[in-house]
What does this fold into?
Amino acid sequence: MTRREHRYVMTGGPGAGKTTLLRALSAAGHAVMPEAGRSIIRAQRAIDGPALPWRDRTLFAELMLAFDMRSHDEAQASETPVFFDRGVPDTLGYLRLCGLRVPDHLTEAARHVRYAPIVFVAPPWREIYRQDEERRQDFGEAQRTYEAVTASYRDLGYELAELPRGDVASRVAYVLERAF
It folds into this structure.
């Protein structure tokens, strides 16, 4: 396998258990890259910055793109699999979801910055969905986000593998069985 084929993305709508799964993978010794959106929201809230999704969605998207490209670059050196909490195509989906224009440079980035051919997708799951300070979307918007980001990956030729609804251990086993 090439190094690119060792870069696995977890995507889907918010609140579907991606981050919990990635924490479990990290605890098991696997390399994990954090989600751009939550990291940016925390940093921007700390400085009362403008790049918050409820202030400037376009600027927020640009910071997510930069964050994800940097994470991708950092993972290039790894000889072992790296698991990403979202990837560049998620930003395409986000902009489409918001009804905003997708700039040409973002489309080019999504074509250029590639991950493993299989992308793990967490489907909307009402029973575990929770809003918090960083996740302000209601469940309906979480479902629409799922549809937008999965369409982005599908349009870019990725194979989508839907994560089973179940406990974290069964989700970890599902991912590891397909990643190794």
